[in-house]
Amino acid sequence: AFELATGDYLFEPHNGDNYSRDEDHLAHICELLGSIPPSVYKKGQHWKEFFNKQGRLLHIHQLKPWPLLDVLRQKYDWPFEQARQFASFLIPMLAFDQ
Questions:
Q1: Keywords, A to Z (predicted)?
Q2: Whether 61 contacts 69, CB under 8 Å
Q3: 38, exposed or middle or buried, with CB in 10 Å at 0-12, 13-18, 19+?
Q4: Over its length of 98 residues, how does the chain's per-residue pLDDT go in tens digits?
């Protein structure tokens, strides 16, 4: 839905000097939705490759929270009400299953 509405991928992770594409993807998710609950990430077989015992990413320390409403308003210049409605529609589909 996001791609259809904006023409862009919601997440477009890349490798960095000190982190993998997968860890960057997790960082983008955290920036958009907030911290991933331990009950979610600990279900993954390889969670220790990405998270420390406190639930922080191992190699990406500076996250820049950017909620979906702000992404739509700032990056795509959507009117507030349109952005609010679309974010309200999309966020429940992105919520972490616990």
A1: ATP-binding, Kinase, Nucleotide-binding, Serine/threonine-protein kinase, Transferase
A2: no
A3: middle
A4: 999 999 999 999 999 999 999 999 999 999 999 999 999 999 999 999 999 999 999 999 999 999 999 999 999 999 999 999 999 999 999 999 86
∠ CA 32-6-20, nearest 5°, is 45
Measure Cα distances from 69 to 12, 36, 37 in Å. Answer: 18, 19, 22
Read off the amino acid at residue 56: R
| Token pair recorded at residue 96 | 């972490």
φ, ψ dihedrals at 57, nearest 5°: -65, 145
Residue 42 DSSP symbol: T
Q: What pLDDT does residue 97 have?
A: 85
- Extract the tokens encoding 7: 């023409």
Owning domain of residue 50: 2-94
